[in-house]
UniProtKB/TrEMBL annotation:
Xref: InterPro entries: BBE, FAD-bd_PCMH, FAD-bd_PCMH-like_sf, FAD-bd_PCMH_sub1, FAD-bd_PCMH_sub2, FAD-linked_Oxidoreductase, Oxid_FAD_bind_N, Oxy_OxRdtase_FAD_BS
Cofactor annotation: FAD
PANTHER family per UniProt: BINDING OXIDOREDUCTASE, PUTATIVE (AFU_ORTHOLOGUE AFUA_1G17690)-RELATED, FAD-BINDING PCMH-TYPE DOMAIN-CONTAINING PROTEIN
Matches recorded under Pfam families: BBE, FAD_binding_4
Protein name: 6-hydroxy-D-nicotine oxidase
Swiss-Prot/TrEMBL keywords: FAD, Flavoprotein, Oxidoreductase
Keyword hit for Flavoprotein: yes
Residue ranges of domain FAD-binding PCMH-type in the record: 43-213
Native source species: Dactylosporangium siamense
Keyword Iron on entry: no
Family statement: Belongs to the oxygen-dependent FAD-linked oxidoreductase family.
Superkingdom, natural source: Bacteria
GO molecular function, one term: oxidoreductase activity
Length: 454
């Protein structure tokens, strides 16, 4: 890309100032530094302009302004991308944090959310009706970013990935036009959005299918670290035959005296007695010193991991897909937890199974539809720490898992040095996805997953 000049920035300002007024932020403006902060404080990029949009027309104007001025373009929705792709140095940020409306249609069993909405916003609209859609596990995560790359979560076994519940989306393309992607409107873009990430345009509205689920049986079981081997071995056996209604996460959370082994079950079935029996088997894998499993609203259950997502810390993520938590994988995870580089870091293992695994791999851009585990290596450290030893720890974790890992990994958790692995994650869908990229964004204005460029 050619160097960005003051004249280029002035061109964009002249185009957007009459429309956005004070919502067009420049580096000297009072709210600029706050607006460029994202969840990961390690991201310190300085864009040239931040366009705080309120509707689709303003988003389209910002896309055209960036194109005409030759400025790099990025999109900030929930701001939870750890790698900081929401910001580009010297670029124009389309900030969707003012577009967070969520509207439920209980009779039609759908919900519509704007592109900047978080999971909390979505659930605030659906929970009063006893309705849910598939979400991730953290309420502050943006819905659009989660959905377009996949959307692992506690309801995956029963209702699939978040993207499996997407009914349609409104998208502003790189030429400033707005299209509706869905089975009856641009089905190819709809296919690409479901797994291809934010690489095709700015998603300004999303519509989801809703399901009846007023409560879940869920909670946290914490075991001594010394029992990790037995817990992981038992976990692997139980989840291999688990019904759709039971999705269980495991791994290691920080504790006052070092890492703690955890199991986090979600039972989404109507038969609570069956759920209690399933959780009793998990409880019996060791001697839990914390047992907080009970019936609760789904939105309350998602609060369990909030304490581990703290703004102001530095974050560095790695990820692998495993066919199962085999003895080799379990040993590698336990060894990694024993050598953890920070008292804030976590290892989380999510299960992919059930309804999500019964989708044809070619039906969406998300290709890995065999039952598997996704490992999240989350190195968390204060800004006063140097990154080197935390990076070394995270890299050692995935190196220990590599001998038993599947090709690819969850693109939402991969970083800028993982392009080859990101491409592998799309498997037989890669060529079709690259063709969609050439069709909808031939000049690569949107680069949430850089691997999707020929």
């Amino acid at each position: 890309m050619t160097a960005i000049s003051a004249a280029d920035i002035d061109t964009a300002v002249r185009a957007l100032r009459p429309r956005l007024g004070e919502r067009l932020l420049l580096p000297d403006d009072g709210g600029f530094d706050g607006a460029r902060k994202v969840w990961n404080a390690a991201v310190t990029r300085r864009p040239a302009l931040i366009a705080r949009c309120r509707d689709t027309a303003e988003v389209a104007a910002a896309v055209l302004a960036a194109r005409d001025a030759g400025l790099p373009l990025s999109v900030r929705a929930g701001g939870h991308d750890w790698a900081g792709r929401a910001l580009r140095d010297g670029g124009l940020v389309i900030d969707l944090t003012g577009m967070r409306d969520a509207t439920a249609d209980p009779a039609g069993r759908t919900v519509t959310v704007q592109g900047g909405a978080t999971t909390d916003d979505l659930l605030a609209a659906t929970a009063p009706h006893g309705l849910v859609t598939a979400t991730g596990v953290v309420r502050s995560v943006g819905v659009a970013g989660l959905t377009t790359a996949g959307g692992y979560g506690p309801l995956i076994g029963r209702f699939g990935l978040a993207l499996d519940n997407l009914l349609g989306a409104d998208v502003v393309l790189a030429d400033g036009s707005t299209v509706t992607a869905g089975p009856d409107g641009d089905p190819e873009l709809w296919w690409a959005l479901r797994g291809g990430g934010g690489n095709f345009g700015v998603v300004t509205d999303l519509r989801f299918r809703l399901h009846d689920l007023p409560t879940v049986l869920a909670g946290m079981l914490l075991f001594p670290f010394a029992e990790a081997g037995a817990v992981l071995a038992g976990y692997a056996e139980i989840v291999a035959g688990a019904p759709d209604e039971l999705t269980v996460m495991t791994g290691f959370l920080p504790g006052p005296d070092g890492p703690m082994t955890f199991l986090c079950p979600f039972w989404s079935g109507a038969d609570l007695a069956a759920g209690e029996r399933a959780i009793a088997k998990l409880r019996a894998l060791g001697h839990p010193f914390v047992d907080q499993v009970g019936v609760m609203p789904y939105v309350a259950a998602l609060g369990m991991f909030d304490a581990n997502i703290v703004e102001g810390n530095h974050y560095l993520l790695r990820s692998r897909w495993l066919p199962s938590v085999s003895p080799v994988a379990a040993d590698a995870l336990i060894a990694a937890a024993a050598e953890i580089s920070s008292p804030f870091s976590t290892l989380i293992v999510n299960r992919f199974h059930g309804a999500a695994a019964r989708v044809d791999p070619a039906a969406t851009a998300f290709a890995n539809r065999v039952p598997h585990q996704v490992v999240e290596v989350i190195a968390v450290y204060p800004p006063t720490d140097a990154a080197d030893r935390h990076r070394a720890w995270a890299d050692s974790v995935v190196a220990g898992l590599d001998p038993v890992s599947l090709p690819g990994a969850y693109p939402n958790l991969l970083g800028p040095d993982d392009d080859a692995r990101a491409r592998d994650s799309f498997a037989g869908n890669l060529d079709r996805l690259l063709a969609a990229k050439r069709r909808y964004d031939p000049d690569n204005a949107f680069s949430a997953i850089p691997a999707l460029v020929d």
